[in-house]
């Protein structure tokens, strides 16, 4: 908004053709700055002036009235703002006397401010007025109507075209302040699972494990590290160890199936002896020749006959027939023997264990170094102990989602946290993931989902899609959804306002 500065004495003198007679009527001056003419977000047109009235701006029997006017060029639309009146000493007395005698004071619209000037003083008037914005005002300009009343009833009129046009707020859309819902996780079994694979080397045709043979010590160390960590921690108890053996497809398929099972049992016997574990926690199985693993490795390789090998693997031959076809590839078969088949001779293992529950104080400590040991409820209680606008609060909900990526409550809560941070797109992805996992009888979770999905759509300005979801959540008793519906209507009004401003500015 540009500022308009006016030395009113000079204007009157210039209009009088430089007459010294008119100049002598004023012993002071009035300076005015138009500071503001714009539209607020609440659709109020606001006008602000600053009047600096110095010394005796009018003589003792004069009054000077200023009336701001906003009008269109064709004169069809106009709006007057409250006036400012400047009185000389005698004029003030005459006006007071007239008002007391005629009671006109009570029937007239009062000025914004009346200033009674005096020698050696100056007055600063901060003028501020607001009216409801109307569409015609977009093309209007500001004028200042002035009336100088002198002794003997003489009046002089002056119109000063300020040229100021209404400034509209930056076309920044209103961002709804959405209300979100968090779901308290239900009870859960604190069972954990560690998976791995060991590439053990066996003597040809043998199934006994030799810890010092080739790389066996390193491979056995992997699974022993898992068991040692659980046992040493003291908070977990191993409940199940599943071992599954695999073989490469070189040699007789039936013999390889038996060999892969024998090698899986050999690992089970090794662990049982090493840790004195009960027989009942072990489960042992075998796949035999690992053709699916072979296919994946070949597909990722740079074998020269890769497509030919893949066709053989996918073909209708028996396992032994496929082996003979692969042998016929010559040098490619040698590459398979040296580079790929050793990766297929492995034993997979899964160690399942239960963790104890923690008190809140214990959870705070565990969360710092091993959050994976906490249940979702334990992590949730820590999260909500922080301020809802803090980084720690949102960080815990992010961590919960990392640890429980397929849990509907974790996804709904992560979406709520993301919405509070303004990331509607990421929140939508979480809600998409949760959509199919919400149990039909869980009305509380369903209404939380509906509210948060509606809030995400609201932030994305997809109001017609958001409204039925929010109404569903509101009907289910969610106060957050009722607040979001209020925000939705506010957003609709803001959209209409922005559209109106765009049309005016074009």
UniProtKB/TrEMBL annotation:
<keyword id="KW-0472">Membrane</keyword>
<keyword id="KW-0732">Signal</keyword>
<dbReference type="InterPro" id="IPR006665">
    <property type="entry name" value="OmpA-like"/>
</dbReference>
<protein>
    <recommendedName>
        <fullName>OmpA-like domain-containing protein</fullName>
    </recommendedName>
</protein>
<dbReference type="InterPro" id="IPR011990">
    <property type="entry name" value="TPR-like_helical_dom_sf"/>
</dbReference>
<dbReference type="Pfam" id="PF12984">
    <property type="entry name" value="DUF3868"/>
</dbReference>
<dbReference type="GO" id="GO:0016020">
    <property type="term" value="C:membrane"/>
</dbReference>
<feature type="signal peptide">
    <location>
        <begin position="1"/>
        <end position="24"/>
    </location>
</feature>
<dbReference type="InterPro" id="IPR036737">
    <property type="entry name" value="OmpA-like_sf"/>
</dbReference>
<keyword id="KW-0175">Coiled coil</keyword>
<dbReference type="InterPro" id="IPR024480">
    <property type="entry name" value="DUF3868"/>
</dbReference>
<dbReference type="Pfam" id="PF00691">
    <property type="entry name" value="OmpA"/>
</dbReference>
<feature type="coiled-coil region">
    <location>
        <begin position="471"/>
        <end position="498"/>
    </location>
</feature>
<feature type="domain" description="OmpA-like">
    <location>
        <begin position="189"/>
        <end position="316"/>
    </location>
</feature>
């Amino acid at each position: 908004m540009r500022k308009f500065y006016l030395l009113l004495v000079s204007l009157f003198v210039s209009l009088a053709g430089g007459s010294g007679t008119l100049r002598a009527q004023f012993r002071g001056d009035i300076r005015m700055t138009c500071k503001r003419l714009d539209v607020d977000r609440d659709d109020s047109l606001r006008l602000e002036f600053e009047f600096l009235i110095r010394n005796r701006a009018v003589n003792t029997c004069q009054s000077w009235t200023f009336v701001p006017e906003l009008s269109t060029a064709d004169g069809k639309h106009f709006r007057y703002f409250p006036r400012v009146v400047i009185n000389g000493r005698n004029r003030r007395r005459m006006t007071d006397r007239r008002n007391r005698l005629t009671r006109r004071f009570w029937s007239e619209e009062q000025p914004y401010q009346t200033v009674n000037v005096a020698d050696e003083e100056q007055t600063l008037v901060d003028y501020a007025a607001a009216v409801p914005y109307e569409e015609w005002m977009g093309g209007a300009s500001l004028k200042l109507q002035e009336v100088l009343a002198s002794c003997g009833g003489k009046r002089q009129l002056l119109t000063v075209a300020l040229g100021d046009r209404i400034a509209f707020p930056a076309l920044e859309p209103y961002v709804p302040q959405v209300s979100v819902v968090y779901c308290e996780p239900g009870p859960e079994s604190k069972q954990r699972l560690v998976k791995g694979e060991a590439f053990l080397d066996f003597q040809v045709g043998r199934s006994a494990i030799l810890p010092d043979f080739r790389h066996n010590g390193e491979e056995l160390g992997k699974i022993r590290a898992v068991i040692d960590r659980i046992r040493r921690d003291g908070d977990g108890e191993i409940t199940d160890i599943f071992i599954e053996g695999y073989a490469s497809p070189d040699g007789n398929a039936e013999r390889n199936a038996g060999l892969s099972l024998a090698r899986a049992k050999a690992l089970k016997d090794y662990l049982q002896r090493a840790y004195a574990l009960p027989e009942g926690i072990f489960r042992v199985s075998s796949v035999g020749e690992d053709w699916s693993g072979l296919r994946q490795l070949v597909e990722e390789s740079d074998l020269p006959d890769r497509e030919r090998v893949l066709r053989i693997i996918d073909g209708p031959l028996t396992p032994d027939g496929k082996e003979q076809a692969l042998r016929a590839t010559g040098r490619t078969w040698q590459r398979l023997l040296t580079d790929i088949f050793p990766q297929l001779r492995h034993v997979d293992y899964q160690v399942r264990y239960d963790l104890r529950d923690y008190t809140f104080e214990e959870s705070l400590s565990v969360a710092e170094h091993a959050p994976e040991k906490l249940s979702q409820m334990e992590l949730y209680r820590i999260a909500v102990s922080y301020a809802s606008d803090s980084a720690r609060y949102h960080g815990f909900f992010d961590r919960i989602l990392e640890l429980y990526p397929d849990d509907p409550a974790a996804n709904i809560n992560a979406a709520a946290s993301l919405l509070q941070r303004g990331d509607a797109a990421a929140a939508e992805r979480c809600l998409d993931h949760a959509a199919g996992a919400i149990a039909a009888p869980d009305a509380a979770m369903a209404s939380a989902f509906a509210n948060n999905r509606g809030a995400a759509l609201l932030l994305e300005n997809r109001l017609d899609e958001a409204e039925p979801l929010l109404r569903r959540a509101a009907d289910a008793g969610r106060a957050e959804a009722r607040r979001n519906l209020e925000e939705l209507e506010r957003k609709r009004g803001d959209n209409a306002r922005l559209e109106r401003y765009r049309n005016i500015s074009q």
